Amino acid sequence: MVRAPGGGWHLRPFPDDRSLWPASFRELFEPRRYPFRPAAEGGHVAFPRSSEEGTAFGTALVNGDEAALRALASRKGVDPEPMVRLSRCAHGGYRGFKVCVTDMTEVEPSYEYGWRWPGGGTGKIRTRRVIAVSDAGAMLSDCNCWHEGVSLDMQDPDGETARKTSFSSVDFYPSGDLFSALLDIPDYPGGA
Questions:
Q1: Is the pLDDT of residue 1 over 70?
Q2: What single string gives the DSSP state of each residue in 50-85?
Q3: Which end of the chain has fewer surrounding CB within 10 Å, N or C?
Q4: What one-character-per-residue DSSP string does the chain give?
Q5: Exposed (0-12), middle (13-18) or buried (19+): which is 86, by Cβ within 10 Å?
Q6: Percent of the chain beyond pLDDT 70?
Q7: Cα–Cα distance for residue pair 43/171, rounded to 1 Å
Q8: What is the pLDDT of residue 79?
């Protein structure tokens, strides 16, 4: 964290060479604490969803209902295989953990309150609430990606912003690199 020009603070990115990162931060991603194995193969599927689809997707995933997952994928026009693979890995229990990641690197903040306030600014905020399925090298995510034409105002009393930003994502990472996988927040499906 360093002083921002004009007052306030901002985060300075870590260097690409991870050995130069502070040890206290590197320890957060120790494999013994948060194991994340490489996936046998990569895969990604993301689709906008309504609350009904979210419920149907979750139920089918937990119950191992491959027919329902394939039907949902067909309705959404996406590849069903990542969802089916995740269901097979997660069915009957799994070793994993939950985490939330927010990326505001593409936000130009507002200074209306006298400090850097992302909520009043412009650009893209990307949030990913993850259930990591460690043994599969997979992440099941509930994502929100604010994009051009969508206000960054966090107030959403009628749910309009959620309908334009919320989607589900299933991703497999052959690298086995947990930190990189967490930072790989997908864009809103369809390139909105």
A1: no
A2: -HHHHHHHHHHHHHT-HHHHHHHHHHHTS-SHHHHH
A3: N
A4: -EEPTTSSEEPPPPPS-GGGS-HHHHGGG-TTTS--PPPSS-EEEEEE--HHHHHHHHHHHHHT-HHHHHHHHHHHTS-SHHHHHHHHHHTT---EEEEEEEEEEEEEEE-TTSS-EEEEEEEEEEEEEEEEEGGGTEEEEEEEE--TTS------TTSHHHHHHEEEEEEE-TT--HHHHHH-PPPPTT--
A5: buried
A6: 84
A7: 5
A8: 83
∠ CA 45-136-178 to the nearest 5 degrees?
Answer: 85
At 19 the pLDDT is 84
CB 43 within 8 A of CB 169: no
A 10 A CB-CB count for 162 gives 12
Q: Which of 50, 46, 51, 52 is nearest to 86 (CA)?
A: 46
pLDDT in tens, 75-103: 888 788 888 888 888 776 667 788 999 88
